[in-house]
Design a protein that fits this description.
Elements lengths: L2 H27 L8 H4 L11 H13 L2 H9 L4 H28 L6 H8 L2 H30 L10 H26 L4 H21 L7 H17 L6 H26 L12 E2 L3 E2 H8 L7 H9 L11 H24 L5 H4 L5 H14 L5 H34 L12 H6 L2 H16 L3 H4 L1 H24 L8 H25 L9 H4 L12 H30 L4
Antiparallel strand pairs: 1-2
Helix pairs in contact: 1-5, 1-14, 3-11, 3-14, 3-17, 4-14, 4-16, 5-13, 5-14, 5-21, 6-7, 6-21, 7-10, 7-17, 7-19, 7-21, 7-24, 8-9, 8-11, 8-17, 9-11, 10-17, 10-19, 11-14, 11-16, 11-17, 12-22, 13-17, 13-21, 16-17, 17-19, 21-22, 21-24, 22-24
C-alpha cells in the first residue's frame, strides 16, 4: 500500500461527506440565514462578539486540533493501519463531525448557551449541575496536562545545562504570536478592510514570527519559570474579550496548521511513501491491551472528541455571524482534523520497524515532524529546518488550546451557580463571588497548577476516557433537544450508544487498574489508556498521583452514569 493512495481515499471520503452528509444535516434540521444570531443579540464584547467566518473557523479549528490528531493515530498504529484508518474516517464523519455541528447548532438556536444549559432546558436542573461539574473537572485535567506539555516544550535547557535550540525557537515564536495577535485583534475590530486583506496581513505576521523564532533561538528559560509564565498567560487570555486575543491568535495559528497540513500533503504526493505498517496486527497487543476500547479511546481528536462540543457550544457559537456559517465552521473543521489524523497515520507508517527510534524520534510529535520533513526533503528543502518548523507548528497548538479550555472551565464553574430565577439584585454575596469571572478563573487555574506539578503523565491517563464520555453526554443532550423541538435526531443514536459503551468500559478498566496500582509505584500501565509512550512504565509516578487519578476517575464515572441515565430517560419517554 502507498501512502498517497491512502490520502486519496481519505480525501474522497471527507470531501464527499461534507458535500453530501453535511448538507443533508443542514436540510434536515434547517437554518435561517436571516436570523439574528446570539453574537449580535447578546453582544457584550467579551464572550459574545460576531466575527468573520474564517476567523471563527480559525478559532474552532485551532482550539480543537492541537496535537491530539497527531498523537492518537500514531499511538494506535500498533493495531495496524487499517483499523486506524477506518475509525478516523467513520468516526470523523458519523461521530465527530455530527457531534460538532449538532452541538454548535443547538447552542446557536438556544442563545449561544452551552451544552449544560441544553441539559437544564431539556433534561433537568440536576442533570445540568452534574454535567457542569463533570465539565469543570474535565477542564482542570486538560489545562493541567496541556500546561505541563507546553512547559516542557518551551524548556530551554536539558539536565546537563545544554541549550535546546528548537525549544527556544518554539517558545519565542509562540510569544511573538501572542503579541502579534493582540495587534491584529485591534486591527480586525476597528479597520474596515475586506477579509482578503486581513488574511494577507495575518499570513504576513505569521511568516515574520516563524522567521524570527527560527533565526533567533535565544529564549532559554527553565521549566519552572515557564510554568509560571504559561499560567499567567492563561489567566489573562481567559478573561480578556475574545476579540482582543482569542479570535486573532487562533486566526493566526489556524494558518500555521493549515500550512503544515498543505506542506505534508505536497510532501506525500511527491515522496509517494510506502506503508511499512502491517494492515492489521491483532485484537490484543501485548503491553497495550485490547482493541476495544483502547483504539477508540486513544484516537479521540481526529475521530470524535467531547472537548469539541465544549468549544462549539461554549465559545465558537457566540461568534457566529450567520447561521449558514455553522456547517463550515464546525463540520468542516472536524473533517479537516480527520485529514490531519490520516496524515499522521501515513507519517508513522512511512518508517520501517525500529527506524524512528534509531533516529531519536521517541514522541508522536517527533515521529510526525521527522516523517513530514523527510517527505519535504525529497523536494530539495532542508530536512533539519523543516523538522524544526513542523515541530514548532505542533507545539504552538498545545498553547492554543489552553486559554480556550480555561475559558470553558471558567464558564462552566460560573454557570453552575447561576439560575434563571437569580438576578443581580437578589444574588447572595457568596454567589456573586462564585460567579465572578476572576474568582472562577483563579480557582480553576489554581487547581490545574497543583495538578500540573505532578506531571502530565500522572493526569493524562484520564483524558481519553473522560473526553469520549463527554462526547456521549453531549450527543445525548443534543438528541433530546432535537426531539423536543420536533427535529430528526436518529443519526445521533448509534454514535451515542457506542461511545457510552466505549467510555464506561475504559473507565471501569482504569479504576480497576488504579486500585491494583495503589501500594506499588512501579506498576505496568496500559499504554493505550494512559498515553504513556510504548515501552515506558509509571515507575516515576507517586502513589498520591495514583490516588488522585482514582478520585477523578470515580467522580467522572459517577457523574457520567447519572447524567446519561437522566438523558436517556428523557430521550426514550413518550411525548406528552
Amino acid at each position: 500500500m502507498n501512502g498517497f493512495l491512502i490520502l486519496i481515499i481519505a480525501a474522497v471520503v471527507l470531501i464527499g461527506a461534507y458535500l453530501i452528509y453535511g448538507r443533508y444535516l443542514v436540510k434536515t434540521w434547517g437554518i435561517n440565514p436571516d436570523a439574528k444570531t446570539p453574537a449580535y443579540e447578546f453582544r457584550d464584547g467579551v464572550d459574545y462578539e460576531p466575527a468573520d467566518r474564517m476567523v471563527v473557523f480559525g478559532h474552532q479549528f485551532a482550539s480543537i486540533a492541537g496535537a491530539g490528531p497527531i498523537n492518537g493515530p500514531i499511538q494506535a498504529a500498533v493495531f495496524g493501519w487499517v483499523p486506524v484508518m477506518l475509525w478516523i474516517l467513520v468516526g470523523g464523519v458519523f461521530f465527530g463531525a455530527v457531534q460538532d455541528f449538532s452541538s454548535m447548532y443547538a447552542s446557536v438556536k438556544n442563545k449561544g448557551r452551552t451544552i449544560g444549559y441544553l441539559i437544564e432546558e431539556y433534561i433537568g436542573k440536576t442533570g445540568k449541575k452534574l454535567f457542569l461539574m463533570f465539565c469543570w473537572l474535565f477542564c482542570i485535567l486538560v489545562v493541567a496536562a496541556f500546561a505541563d506539555v507546553v512547559d516542557k516544550t518551551f524548556m530551554g535547557f536539558d539536565a546537563a545545562g545544554n541549550t535546546y535550540a528548537a525549544n527556544c525557537s518554539v517558545a519565542l515564536t509562540s510569544l511573538l504570536f501572542i503579541v502579534e495577535a493582540v495587534g491584529l485583534g485591534f486591527f480586525l475590530k476597528y479597520s474596515k478592510f475586506n477579509k482578503w486583506v486581513n488574511t494577507a496581513i495575518a499570513i504576513g505576521l505569521l511568516v515574520i514570527a516563524v522567521a524570527i523564532g527560527v533565526a533567533f533561538p535565544v529564549l532559554s528559560l527553565s521549566v519552572g519559570t515557564w510554568q509560571i509564565i504559561v499560567f499567567i498567560y492563561i489567566f489573562i487570555a481567559s478573561v480578556l474579550p475574545v476579540w482582543m486575543l482569542l479570535q486573532p491568535r487562533d486566526y493566526l495559528n489556524s494558518y500555521l496548521l493549515i500550512f503544515m497540513i498543505a506542506a505534508a500533503v505536497v510532501g506525500i504526493v511527491v515522496a509517494q511513501p510506502s506503508v511499512n505498517l502491517p494492515a492489521f496486527t491483532s485484537f490484543y497487543v501485548e503491553g497495550t491491551g485490547s482493541m476495544f476500547p483502547i483504539l477508540f479511546v486513544t484516537i479521540a481528536c481526529g475521530a470524535v472528541s467531547g472537548f469539541h462540543s465544549l468549544v462549539a457550544s461554549g465559545t465558537a457559537s457566540k461568534q457566529i455571524k450567520n447561521e449558514k456559517d455553522m456547517l463550515p465552521v464546525s463540520f468542516g473543521a472536524m473533517l479537516m482534523e480527520s485529514a490531519l489524523a490520516i496524515i499522521a497515520l501515513i507519517a508513522v507508517a512511512s518508517f520501517a520497524t525500529g527506524e524512528a527510534a534509531s533516529l531519536g524520534y521517541t514522541t508522536p510529535a517527533q515521529i510526525f515532524s521527522g516523517a513530514v520533513s523527510n517527505f519535504l526533503a525529497q523536494m530539495g528543502l532542508p530536512q533539519s529546518m523543516m523538522f524544526t518548523i513542523v515541530n514548532l507548528a505542533i507545539s504552538a497548538f498545545a498553547l492554543t488550546s489552553l486559554d480556550s479550555v480555561a475559558r470553558i472551565g471558567r464558564l462552566s464553574f460560573q454557570e453552575f451557580f447561576l439560575d434563571e430565577s437569580i438576578t443581580d439584585e437578589n444574588m447572595e454575596p457568596w454567589r456573586k463571588v462564585a460567579t465572578n469571572k476572576y474568582f472562577a478563573t483563579i480557582l480553576t487555574l489554581a487547581l490545574s497548577f497543583m495538578l500540573a506539578k505532578a506531571g502530565y503523565a500522572s493526569i493524562w491517563p484520564l483524558f481519553g476516557s473522560a473526553n469520549q464520555l463527554l462526547s456521549a453526554l453531549a450527543l445525548i443532550a443534543v438528541a433530546v433537544f432535537l426531539k423536543k423541538t420536533k427535529r430528526k435526531g436518529f443519526m445521533l443514536w448509534a454514535p451515542m450508544c457506542i461511545m457510552l459503551a466505549v467510555t464506561f468500559t475504559a473507565l471501569v478498566m482504569k479504576i480497576t487498574e488504579l486500585f491494583s496500582a495503589l501500594g506499588s509505584a512501579a506498576h505496568p500501565w496500559v499504554a493505550g489508556l494512559t498515553f504513556i509512550p510504548a515501552g515506558a512504565t509509571a515507575a516515576t509516578l507517586t502513589s498520591w498521583g495514583c490516588l488522585l487519578q482514582l478520585v477523578f476517575a470515580v467522580i467522572l464515572l459517577a457523574l457520567g452514569v447519572i447524567v446519561a441515565i437522566q438523558g436517556i430517560r428523557k430521550l426514550t419517554e413518550k411525548d406528552a
